[in-house]
Design a protein that fits this description.
Length: 169
């Protein structure tokens, strides 16, 4: 009976943990980050050269075994993701983030990690070029948990927008 109860508790805890890390988003110490691994047959040099020469970044450089950069301003494509349930701040602002890309030869993939995600104003919801951390809108500070609004549509919208940016041809 104790084993059944313990198994049930572990299953519930794992389920809750999986929901907190839904669609490539992670929440740690009240900070939102995004991470995804992309399978590739390309070499480390090809992957790194592609990203260094891409127009994805404002600034980009290679440091050791990482590509590090600042993402250009991107906006969600409302034609692609729709607007039902998407907050105005998501629809009417751009976003940017710090990016790191690492190559894993054993897994034959590269991992893209975004941190310090911020909204960037276009002048209608936030002032032009004004930056506001996503956490101010979507995280219950001090509780290390997402606000319910983020889990409904924004996480899906951002994941749909961010994922294709880093897919290599």
């Amino acid at each position: 009976m104790k084993q059944l109860f313990l198994s049930l508790c572990l299953l519930v805890a794992a389920s809750m943990f999986a929901q907190a890390e839904d669609q490539n988003f992670y929440l740690n110490d009240d900070k939102i980050s995004w991470q995804k691994a992309y399978a590739t047959e390309k070499s480390k040099e090809e992957v790194y050269q592609y990203f260094e020469n891409s127009d994805i970044f404002q600034k980009v450089k290679q440091e050791g075994n990482l590509i590090i950069g600042r993402l250009n301003y991107y906006s969600v494509d409302v034609k692609k993701v729709g607007i039902v349930g998407v907050p105005q701040i998501v629809q009417k602002t751009d976003f940017t983030a710090n990016v790191s890309i690492s190559y894993r030869p054993e897994e034959k993939d590269y991992v893209v990690s975004l941190s310090d995600l911020v909204f960037v104003g276009r002048g209608d919801f936030l002032k032009k070029k004004e930056e506001k951390p996503l956490e101010e809108q979507f995280v219950r500070t001090g509780y290390n948990e997402y606000r319910p609004g983020f889990l409904k549509r924004p996480k899906e919208v951002y994941n749909t927008t961010i994922s294709p940016i880093f897919e290599m041809p």
